[in-house]
């Protein structure tokens, strides 16, 4: 949600890819791709954002904390980031999502968005459940 220098962003993408591969992820057994190259993430985020009300986003603690750290001038990207996270989850019809405690509220938002979408348009998205790690 913060602007990055293009060269730094490119290097971060390469470093993250190297770290994922170093952890043992086998690209012969799974899909490894750059999310930013898949336009459906942003497209679904737009659709879901049109179904998400502002008061719900404004109540999220992460928004309040980060906005305060930005001199109360939080960006639209920061505010709507949880909707993009919901799109990332729902696009693949995920049923289980590994999250830390700090992301439980964002997953609950994804659950609510899925339920709202399904109620309005018919059963389409599974309602994802959290897999909480103790680490």
Automatic annotation (TrEMBL):
Its EC number(s): 6.1.1.2
Pfam families from the UniProt entry: tRNA-synt_1b
Principal EC category: ligase
Example of a GO biological process term: mitochondrial tryptophanyl-tRNA aminoacylation
Keyword Ligase: yes
GO MF entries: ATP binding; tryptophan-tRNA ligase activity
Keyword Ion transport: no
GO cellular component term of the entry, any: mitochondrial matrix
Cross-referenced PANTHER family: TRYPTOPHAN--TRNA LIGASE, MITOCHONDRIAL (PTHR43766:SF1)
Family classification: Belongs to the class-I aminoacyl-tRNA synthetase family.
Name of this protein: tryptophan--tRNA ligase
Origin species: Corythaixoides concolor
Lineage of origin: Eukaryota, Metazoa, Chordata, Craniata, Vertebrata
